[in-house]
Predict the structure.
Amino acid sequence: MQLLILVLLPAAFLLPPRAQAGEIIGGWEARPHSRPYMAYVKIATRRGRKTCGGFLIRDDVVLTAAHCNDEQGHITVSLGVHDLRLREWSQQEIPVLRRIPHPEYDMHSLNNDIMLLQLVHRARLNECVGLISLPSAWQGVCPGAMCSVAGWGRTSARRAKGSHVLREVDMPVLEDYVCLKDPDQIYHYYNASTMLCAGDPKQAKDSFKGDSGGPLVCSKIAQGIVSWGSLNGTPPGVYTRISRFVPWILETMRMLQP
C-alpha cells in the first residue's frame, strides 16, 4: 500500500511513494471563521497551481509543510477565508516574501516536514484573522488526546477536487506503535521523534489531499502539521510534531524583520 502527501495538485502531477494529506474525510463544514488562524496557501508552478493549508503564528508568519514548497513557484496566502467561491469581506490575500523550509527537510522520507512563510506585510488581526499558539519546546501531546484538523482538501479518494468550504474533523492522537507496526510498510519512514500518529483506524475520519500544512489542534494549541498518510485516506495520518521544532521556529522568526 502506498502513502499520500496531502497537497492538492493538478491531475498530471506525479505523487511520491507516500501520499500527502488533503481534504477532510468524515468531517463537517466548520462554522465560518471559527478558526481565524487558518491560511489557504496557493503555489503557482510551471505545471499549474497547487494548494495547501497553513496557519498564522505571527502577524506576518504562516507555518505550513515543507513539501508544499516549490522553488520556482510564487506563493500567496489567503487569510480570513471560509468559502473559496466567494470574495469574502474578511479575506486578506498577501504574497509571500520569504519561504524557509527546515534545513534538514528530507523530501524522500518527509522527515522535518515544516516551513515558515514570511508575508510581504503584516496581516490585520481581527475576529476573522488571528493567531494560534504553539506548544512549549519538547512539550508532547499525550496519546488519547482528542484533537482536530481542518482544511479545504478532498473529502474522499473518489473526489478529484477539494472542498469549497473549510471542513473540520475530530481525531485522537495515537501511540507511535500504531503507525510503526503497519504490516504493509506504509509507515516505513515514520519517525516518532519528529512525527505524530493520529486518527482512529476504526473510523473513516482523516485529513486528505489538499489539507497538507494545516494544523492538528489540541486544546487550542497547534501540536502537529498535516504531512502524509495513506493513498485512500484511511487513518491514521502522520503529522509533523511541532514541539520538536519550536526552538528552530522561534530562532528563525527572530531573524525575520517584520
Observations:
- The helical segments are 176-180, 246-255.
- The first helix runs from residue 176 to 180.
- Confidence is low (pLDDT under 50) at residues 1-5, 7-24.
